[in-house]
Specification:
Elements lengths: L3 E10 L3 H10 L4 H4 L4 E8 L8 E8 L2 E13 L4 E9 L5 E13 L2 E12 L8 H20 L3
Antiparallel strand pairs: 1-7, 2-3, 3-4, 4-5, 5-6, 6-7
């Protein structure tokens, strides 16, 4: 296996895809209230929520371990309901030279599918593929789904 890779996971959700996309574009800081066991803080460092070039910092817990990340919003596509983030600082950068995360929402009638895609370059061959990071995203997506199924829009 090479140093460069791309992984993805898809999650079917029962809530409106627009609500999910809106959360990630405009209200990302609310995720800490929806998934408090996973996300401890999400802060806007510079820019505006959902705007290309904006910088966001994260404190999160994965598998019982605390992590930090700082990312820049690289792309926002309203039509495709997708957002791409590039991690620039934090714990992931100790293992990866580059790490990009994209989230998109596809809808077909009442069927909504969230796709998480990670593109990365490992620092060396001993670094694992970030599959557990995608597991984290999958699990967080299901928590967000449960939250919106319980809370009226």
């Amino acid at each position: 296996m090479g140093l460069h890779g791309k992984l993805f996971t898809q999650v079917s959700i029962k809530v409106d895809g627009d609500i999910f996309f809106h959360l990630f574009k405009h209200k990302l800081h609310h995720i800490k209230n929806i998934c408090p066991q996973k996300i401890q803080s999400v802060n806007l460092v510079t820019g505006e929520w959902g705007t290309v070039g904006s910088v966001i910092s994260w404190n999160y817990t994965k598998d019982g371990v605390s992590f930090t990340a700082k990312e820049i919003i690289e792309a926002v596509d309203e039509e495709k309901r997708s957002i791409t983030y590039k991690v620039t600082e934090g714990d992931l950068m100790a293992m990866y030279n580059t790490f990009k995360l994209a989230v998109s929402v596809d809808s077909n009638g009442e069927d909504n599918v969230v796709t998480w895609t990670v593109e990365y370059e490992k620092k060396n061959e001993s670094v694992p593929e970030p599959s557990t990071f995608l597991d984290f995203c999958f699990s967080a997506t299901k928590e967000i789904e449960r939250h919106y199924m319980l809370v009226p829009n």
